[in-house]
TrEMBL record:
Species whose genome carries this gene: Pseudomarimonas arenosa
InterPro entries to which the protein is assigned, alphabetical: CheY-like_superfamily (IPR011006), Diguanylate_Cyclase (IPR050469), GGDEF_dom (IPR000160), Nucleotide_cyclase (IPR029787), Rev_trsase/Diguanyl_cyclase (IPR043128), Sig_transdc_resp-reg_receiver (IPR001789)
EC number(s) stated in the UniProt entry for this protein: 2.7.7.65
PROSITE patterns noted in UniProt: GGDEF, RESPONSE_REGULATORY
PANTHER family linked to this entry: DIGUANYLATE CYCLASE DGCM-RELATED (PTHR45138:SF9), REGULATORY COMPONENTS OF SENSORY TRANSDUCTION SYSTEM (PTHR45138)
Cofactor dependence: Mg(2+)
Protein known as: diguanylate cyclase
GO molecular function, one term: diguanylate cyclase activity
Length: 316
């Protein structure tokens, strides 16, 4: 049984050491059970950890130019990679460094010269613990009714994507949607069918998402939220509206039409230091309110830096 047979993909491990020979020895000890990456530069570690989903880092503490403790501190300061476990690799005469590394947040240590069996055992243990924690965290961020992301996941993901977009100068698209007259739907059909309606809406919105990195979440009650890259946001919003319209779920008490429909606020926004996430959410909520006020079953789209609002309906 290999170290990773219980998981769908091999765990990805980053080896950090300024000596290529040490990297080679560690990589050979790990064998073919892992997706092993490496760097000889301490100043690259945080960038790589933020860009590559990692399950574990093997970090040499004593390197020229930058001490491993500095790297540890930087990793722990980055929200994207602060939960990646780090095993420090030290020489037998560096016990003070081992203690300092553990106090700084490392989960374990390995001494040089390494024992391949010890390396494999400790790596396997911490990879399995990391993936189990990830699974529990994922379950805690799934909406129990609809099976899509919940509000907790949305808030966390928005924080991460907001700061990443701010660093890279990218633009995000935020959407808030509300099932039109959902209270009347519940009053007419009952809460059981109402729950089924929300499940159908959630599945349709998830299917209408254009890209694999789009996040569709249940924001609360009959409200849904979407985070995506701002690439043709109008077409994205129209797909969402069309996906709900195509369900053709009867809604006899809705003044917006005979079937269940959605109102959407859609905001393209380029994050920057002087603009808060709360301000962006308030802006998209205002657009959602305007869509409702002007008849529902439509979206209102604008860019945060412009006043022009574009009304959108299903199918264009």
């Amino acid at each position: 049984m290999t170290a990773d047979t219980t998981w769908a993909t091999p765990a990805r491990i980053l080896i950090v050491d300024d000596e290529p020979l040490n990297i080679q020895v560690l990589a050979e000890a790990l064998g073919d059970d892992y997706d092993v990456r490496f760097t000889t530069r301490a100043d690259e570690v945080t960038t790589l950890a933020c860009r590559l989903p990692l399950d574990l880092i093997l970090l040499d503490l004593v390197m020229p130019g930058r001490h491993g403790l500095e790297v540890l501190a930087e990793l722990r300061a980055e929200a994207v990679c602060r939960d990646v476990p780090v095993i420090i690799v030290t020489a037998m005469n560096e016990l003070d460094n081992e203690e300092a590394g553990l106090n700084a947040g490392a989960v374990d240590y390995i001494t040089k010269p390494i024992s391949p069996a010890i390396v494999r055992a400790r790596v396997r243990t911490h990879v399995e613990l990391k993936r189990q924690r990830d699974q529990l965290a994922q379950l805690a961020e799934i909406d129990g009714l609809t099976g899509i992301a919940n509000r907790r996941r949305f808030d966390r993901e928005l924080q991460l994507r907001w700061h990443a977009a701010q660093r890279h100068g990218d633009t995000l698209c935020l959407m808030l949607g509300d099932v039109d007259h959902f209270k009347q739907y519940n009053d007419h059909f009952g809460h059981g069918p109402g729950d089924q309606c929300l499940k159908h809406v959630a599945a349709a919105l998830a299917q209408g998402a254009a890209r694999t990195d789009d996040l569709v979440a249940r924001y609360g009650g009959e409200e849904f939220a979407v985070i995506s890259r701002a690439e043709d946001s109008a077409a994205q919003a129209q797909r969402m509206l069309s996906a709900i319209a195509e369900l053709q779920l009867p809604h006899p008490l809705s003044s917006a039409g005979p079937y269940v429909s959605l109102s959407l606020g859609v905001l393209d926004v380029r994050p920057r230091p002087e603009l808060s996430i709360d301000a962006a959410l308030a802006a998209v909520d205002t657009l959602l309110y305007q869509a409702k006020r002007q008849g529902r079953r439509q979206a209102m789209l604008r860019h945060y830096d412009h006043d022009a609002i574009t009304p959108l309906r299903a199918g264009g």
